[in-house]
Amino acid sequence: MMKHILKMLMVTLVVVHIYGCNPDDNVMPAGKYENGVLIINEGNFTDGDGSVSFYNPDTEDIHLKIFKEENGRPFGGLLQSVTVHNGKAYLIDNLGSKIEVVEAGSFKWETTISEDLSLPRFFAAIDNKAYVSNWGPYAPDFTSPDSYIAVIDLDNMKVIKKIDVNSAPEGIIVVGEKLFVSSQTTSEISIIDTGTDTITGTIPVGFGPTHFVTDSQGRIWVACTGGVLYAINPVTEEIAASVEIENLTGRISINQNTQSIYLLTSTWAPDYSYTENEVVTLNTGSPDEVRKIFATRNLYGLGVDSASGVIYLANSNAFLGNGTIIKINPEGTETGNFPAGRGPNGFVFR
C-alpha cells in the first residue's frame, strides 16, 4: 500500500513539474475572434448602425454584431474602417469622430479616443505610434480644406500632433520609416517621415488616389478613381508601373502568396438606384494583363484571404436592409455567401 502511495505521489510531482512549470502557462488561450474574418459593416449614413461581424470559414458560423455581443451596447456609429495592431482592434467611427479600441481576440472594449479627431477615416501604425486620416470639418461647399493626419501615442491613446495634408485624405500605409497618404480630391500622394512626423515630399499620380497594398518586392500599389493603378517604389519615390483601368472605385486587395491584385470597378445605373460592378485582377509581374472575373450589382468592398485564396465581396444590397457577403475563387466562381450587417465595406483577415 505504501509503495502504491509513493508511486502516486511521484507521478503527481512529475505532472506538476511538467504542467506547473511550463513557461507557456501564463499564455491565455486564443480569443474567440482570433482566427477568422472580421466584416466591417459601415451602417447607414443617417442611422448610425455600423457594426462588426465575425465569420469562421472552418465552421461557417457567423456572428453579426460582435461589439454589441461582447460589450452590451451597439457600436452606434458610421464604421469607416477597422485595423488590428499589437493585439488591439481600432474601430473608426467616421461621423462620431472617435475610435473605439477593443482587445482583438475577445472584442472587449478598452477605451475610446475622441479628442482631436474630425471625420476620421483610416488607421496605420508603426510600433507604439498610429496615424489616422481625418477629413476635418466640412466647408459650406462640402469640401475639406482643413484635412490632417492625427498622430496618436498608443501608450496613452492620445493625439499628440496634427499634420496638415491635402483635402480628403483617405488610404494611408506605412512602409519602412515613411507614411504614404492618398488625398482623393487631388492627384498626388504625400510622404511623411515617421521619425519627425513632417511632410518630406509628394508623388504625382492620376486623379483620386484612394487605397494601397504592398507586394512581395516592397512596391506600393495605389488605385485611383480617375482610372489608373500605379506601382510606386517607396525608396526612390518614383512610379514603377501604371495600368489604365476604367471605373475604378479605389477598392483594392492583394493575395500576398500569388501576388494577384484584385480591384473593384463601378458604374451607376441610369436611375442611380444601384451600381453595376466588376471584379478585375492582374498579377504584379505582368500588370498589363487585366482580367474580369466576376460581375454583379451593388458591390461595396472586397478583400482576399491569402491563406485560402478565397475572395470576399461585400454586397450592400443598395443599403436596403442588411448586406450579403459573396465568396468567389480566383477564377471568379461563386463558392458561397452569408449575411452581413448594414453596408458591408471591407474585411480583416486573422
Structure description:
This protein is mainly beta. Helix content is 7%, strand content 51%. It is built from two helices and 28 strands. The strands form seven sheets. Strands 3-2-1-28 form a four-stranded antiparallel sheet. A four-stranded antiparallel sheet has the order 4-5-6-7. Strand 16 (209-214) and strand 17 form a beta hairpin. The chain is globular. The N and C termini lie far apart (54 Å). Residues 1-29 have low confidence and may be disordered.
Quick take:
The protein is built from 2 helices and 28 strands. With 350 residues, it is mainly beta.
Mean pLDDT: 92
Question: Got a strand count?
Answer: 28
Terminal Cα span: 54 Å
Radius of gyration: 23 Å
Could you state the order of secondary-structure elements as H and E? HEEEHEEEEEEEEEEEEEEEEEEEEEEEEE
Keywords:
disordered N terminus, 28 strands, four-stranded antiparallel beta sheet, 350 residues, mainly beta, globular
Topology record:
Elements: H1 2-20, E1 37-41, E2 51-56, E3 61-63, H2 66-71, E4 79-85, E5 88-93, E6 98-103, E7 109-113, E8 120-126, E9 129-134, E10 148-153, E11 158-164, E12 169-175, E13 178-183, E14 188-193, E15 198-204, E16 209-214, E17 220-224, E18 228-233, E19 238-244, E20 248-255, E21 260-268, E22 275-283, E23 286-297, E24 299-304, E25 311-315, E26 324-328, E27 334-339, E28 344-349
Antiparallel strand pairs: 1-2, 1-28, 2-3, 4-5, 5-6, 6-7, 8-9, 9-10, 10-11, 12-13, 13-14, 14-15, 16-17, 17-18, 18-19, 20-21, 21-22, 22-23, 24-25, 25-26, 26-27
